[in-house]
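Continuing the series of single-chain predictions for the mutant panel. This is the parent chain; the variants come on the following pages.
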Amino acid sequence: MDYSELEAHILQMIVAASEEDVRAFGEETVTRLVRPELLRGAAEDELTDEARAVLGTACANVLTISAAELHDALATMYDGILVEDGLDTGVLTVISALEHWKSYLEQNRRGELYELAIRSIEDIDHEVSADLHDFLATPQMAAEYQRIRRLLDPGARQEHDARQSGTHQR
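Parent structure:
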């Protein structure tokens, strides 16, 4: 599967998913994208202490923070960026994920969850450098695609559950 096919399939799954499934996907994906290890590469001179603290708090409370609180936290983060260019990739991933999650919470737009899915794919790509013509060739990328499918596609979830129960019975 090439990259454009992957994007199209993810979009199709998000559009077709139930509200419950799309919300569960969003929660799991944003939680994955704001994990603490993504912030470890940030240099001390990239963010003010206040921005760093607010970023950590927003990440720790991403599933319980309101859209308004997240809006304010993001404003503090943006005001606290000390570099013109070259913000750490992990920090960019986290801030982008928080921005998309905030927009989803405010407007309930599935397009924001599509963007979270793409950020998640990009996060894996940053680790393993996937081939654009065979994007699922690496085990890490194939696993991320399967995670997305399992959360958004009831048929894929049933296949996954059947495989898991078959594995446990052996």
